[in-house]
UniProtKB/TrEMBL annotation:
Family per record: Belongs to the peptidase M13 family.
One Gene Ontology cellular component annotation held by this UniProt entry: plasma membrane
PROSITE patterns registered for this protein in UniProt: NEPRILYSIN (PS51885)
Protein name: Peptidase M13 C-terminal domain-containing protein
The organism's place on the tree of life at top rank: Eukaryota
One protein family per Pfam: Peptidase_M13_N
Ranges for region Disordered: 1-30
Record-annotated Peptidase M13 N-terminal domain positions: 68-414
Domain Peptidase M13 C-terminal: start-end pairs: 479-680
GO molecular function: metal ion binding; metalloendopeptidase activity
UniProt keyword annotations, A-Z: Hydrolase, Metal-binding, Metalloprotease, Protease, Zinc
Gene Ontology biological-process annotations: protein processing
Taxonomic source organism: Caenorhabditis brenneri
Length: 682
């Protein structure tokens, strides 16, 4: 785990809660709980700026008029909307972290790695792109040059000949620009598996957007075209797009390897396309490493229909289609990025370097040490839970305990990247010692293209197993479980105020981040990943009887979510879609509570204004803060595809399964938060 120097600074929020006075930061011993409390003296009050911030949220988000036994989510978060309009309490703090990164990138002139220097160049370029209209013209000129590398564009090529056209060549040339959208298909990297997913796309962009984008390119490059020809090409494009959007793929279709589907769509050479994502040297060897790790929808009928459409479309239409879609993609991206804060785009494009800058210069290293200790306590709680399970057979119990013991973790930042030059080494290609090389003279488009090309090359290296870590935006925000490595990644953003801080009482850290870390560990034992062993290998280590019992208990949670009366969506939710996340929530809250009760809290400070509240009640209120959210705006159809449960369920639906919650709040049997039927996993 990481030990990174640096301490953030904060201003005492004395205007939030009266009576604030600074006090020395406490030292947490994380000692085990004793059977008896030896001191009767009143607990001190935590008055650090971070604790006052937490007290502010606890006071202002809760609705004391709501009975916690009827609706604990509303009791803890009922007034959240009066104080914020964003969904989730993490978002403001993430934005603050990004703003701090902007300051660091601007004012720290000397960085340890040249990769960080590349980040500052890109920040400067994005800022210039927003501030100078002339940059638009330069980017449109560079965009046109890129289009010319894709292939002959019929609309602007006088005497264009069908003999010049090859569909796979054009798509491969788009891939060589680092684009994950190839006109007819979209490519996505699933880093947790790791595999490439590729699937057909229908209508991707707003209607009417293309025509203006194309005319802007013509104006910037002094291109004259016959308006009647242009209009006909637009009509042909729209007709083909409409035809593609009508293709229906079976909702019951499984995922299969691309090489199995290739026979149904011979007009597209997927090997040629994927090789274009790679560096020139060693492409055949690299293809052999990844070809079995490319998956797509296994729907032969739909692919055969797509093949028919391609065969029946004119080559001119197909050539224009590939180019028009690339234009739509890039110009829409320009428009979206202009609205995005420059520093946020840097984080998106350089997540690992951004994380390094942030941690080195802002983050409290004490938080990392405490988080690592918490992981170990949670690990013990999982082992204890398995040991005390009344239904696991000994063979399964031993394997579950082994998997928990062998689970590796990274806290905050990979330790190996603290060595001088280590980060730069990661950003060099595996085959060729070539660095990503942005230049001050590059246009925004040129910089973006270089970065996208490099990111796709790195993704290929990762899927091929040549590198052990890939830089994605997920590395900045949150925590995640990596099933193929049986490892846990906990990044710095959640290890910060308001969810975690070295000045917090231990119970507050466990209720906030402990719940989340416990949730991520729980993914190792959820329905999706429980049959992976301690080495991350696909191996069913469950006895048949235990597997049946596990599924029965998981079905209880599926039905509970199906029957849940959500304040936004009513009783219309799908527990089968969310079961992996719900099981992880159940296991996370159970093991976090076990950890909290296993430690000595007798000397822990209380939170301002909650001195007489009782630590157990306060614990649950802090845990609920994680999911306080504005009313969700997703349509039901979209929400039904989301793997996570609704915020309300992640409090009410989860806590109502805990006997200790009902005991803490004296909830009568049969009340919403103390139902007679509870769902328990282990």
């Amino acid at each position: 785990m990481s030990r990174i120097p640096g301490r953030k600074t904060s201003t005492p929020p004395d205007s939030l809660v009266p009576g604030w006075e600074p006090e020395p930061e406490p030292e947490h011993s994380w000692t085990l709980a004793q059977n008896e409390v030896t001191s009767e003296k009143p607990s001190p009050i935590c008055k650090s700026p971070e604790c006052i911030h937490l007290a502010h949220k606890l006071h202002n988000y809760r609705d004391p008029t709501v009975d916690p036994c009827q609706d604990f989510y509303k009791a803890a978060c009922g007034k959240y909307n009066e104080h914020t309009t964003v969904m989730g309490i993490l978002l403001p703090e993430m934005k603050l972290a990004i703003r701090n990164l902007k300051i660091l990138l601007k004012h720290f002139l000397q960085f340890v790695s040249s990769t960080e220097t590349q980040s500052t160049l890109f920040l400067s370029e994005t800022a210039g792109y927003r501030n100078e209209i002339a940059r638009d013209q330069n980017d449109l000129k560079d965009l046109f040059q890129a289009i010319q590398t894709i292939g002959a564009w019929p609309t602007v090529t006088e005497n264009w000949s069908e003999s010049e056209f090859d569909l796979s060549d054009m798509m491969a040339n788009v891939a060589s620009l680092g684009s994950d959208r190839l006109g007819l298909f979209k490519v996505e990297v699933r880093f947790s598996l790791p595999v490439f997913f590729i699937w057909p796309v229908g209508t991707e962009f707003p209607a009417g957007y293309l025509e203006q984008s194309v005319k802007n390119i013509f104006a910037a490059n002094n291109i004259k075209v016959d308006e009647r020809v242009l209009e006909e090409d637009f009509k042909s494009f729209e007709a083909l797009e409409a035809e593609l959007s009508q293709l229906k793929y079976s909702p019951n279709a499984s995922w299969g390897q691309l090489i199995e589907v290739q026979t149904h769509i011979p007009s597209v050479d997927f090997e040629k396309i994927f090789k274009s994502f790679m560096r020139l040297e060693g492409r055949d060897d690299m293809w052999n490493k990844i070809k079995d790790k490319i998956t797509t929808i296994n729907d032969p009928t739909a692919f055969e229909s797509l093949e028919t459409i391609l065969k029946n479309s004119s080559k001119r239409t197909l050539a224009n289609f590939i180019i028009f879609r690339y234009i739509n993609l890039m110009t829409l991206y320009f428009s979206q990025q202009r609205k995005m804060p420059c520093e946020k785009e840097v984080v998106k494009m350089f997540p690992l370097a951004s994380l390094r800058v942030f941690v080195r210069n802002h983050f409290d290293k004490q938080n990392l040490k405490m988080a690592a200790e918490m992981v170990e306590h949670l690990r013990k709680s999982y082992i204890e839970m398995f040991e005390q399970s009344t239904w696991l057979h000994e063979e399964t119990r031993e394997k579950a305990i082994l998997k928990a013991k062998m689970m590796d973790y990274m806290i905050g930042y990979p330790e190996e990247f603290e060595k001088p030059g280590a980060l730069d080494k990661t950003f060099k290609s595996v085959i060729i010692p070539k660095m990503l090389n942005l230049l001050e003279t590059d246009s925004y488009f040129s910089s973006l293209t270089k970065i996208c090309q490099f990111q796709m090359e790195q993704s290929v290296d990762y899927v091929a197993g040549l590198v052990g870590l890939i830089a994605t935006e997920d590395l900045i925000f949150g925590a995640s479980y990596q099933p193929l490595r049986n490892s846990l990644d906990v990044t710095v953003t959640i290890l910060d105020d308001p969810m975690f801080d070295s000045t917090y009482p231990a119970y507050a850290n466990i209720a906030g981040v402990g719940f989340i870390i416990g949730h991520e560990i729980g993914h190792g034992f959820d329905p999706n990943w429980r049959k992976m062993n301690e080495k991350g290998e696909k191996k069913d280590w469950w006895t048949n009887e235990d597997s049946i019992e596990y599924d029965k208990r998981a079905q209880c949670l599926i039905e509970k979510y199906n029957d849940y009366d959500d304040p936004t969506y009513g009783r219309n939710l799908n527990g089968s879609t969310t079961i992996g996340e719900v099981v992880a929530d159940i296991l996370g809250v159970e093991t976090a509570w076990r950890t909290y009760k296993s430690l000595d809290m007798s000397n822990e400070a209380t939170i301002f204004g909650f001195e007489d509240f009782g630590l157990d009640k306060l614990y649950f209120h802090i845990a609920a803060l994680t999911w306080c959210s504005a009313r969700e705006e997703f349509p039901l159809e979209t929400k039904l595809t989301h793997p996570h449960a609704t915020p309300s369920f992640r409090v009410n639906g989860v806590f109502s399964n805990m006997k200790v919650f009902a005991e803490t709040f004296n909830c009568p049997i049969g009340s919403p938060m103390n139902p007679e039927k509870k769902c328990e996993m282990f």
